[in-house]
Design a protein that fits this description.
The structure is a single chain. This protein has 97 residues and is an alpha/beta fold. It is 42% helix and 21% strand. It has four helices and four strands, in the order βαβαβαβα. A four-stranded parallel beta sheet has the order 2-1-3-4, with helices on both faces. α1 links the parallel β1 and β2. α2 runs parallel beside α3. The model has no long low-confidence stretch (mean pLDDT 88).
Amino acid sequence: MVIREKMKIMLVDDEERFLQTSQKMIAKKGYEALIAASGAECLKKLEEEPVHVIILDVKMPGMDGIETLKHIKQRFPLMEVIMLTGHADTESAVEGM
């Protein structure tokens, strides 16, 4: 018998309403969703509990998504990260790549 671990997704965004709504929607689909309101909080939580995928906002106060992504990839090089933003620009997209 194979026991499968429930997929864990971390949502990282400075918009509290987005985090709460998305967390509920993801839970309804049968996944576990952790939330972090900043890049620093994301990195701290990753040290405590591993996740399978991170959905990361690009534009955040303090440590932005690009800087957070750099730290994630240094510590967890195989971590899958989906970058998300409501303020798209070509420069951010290229830097994220």
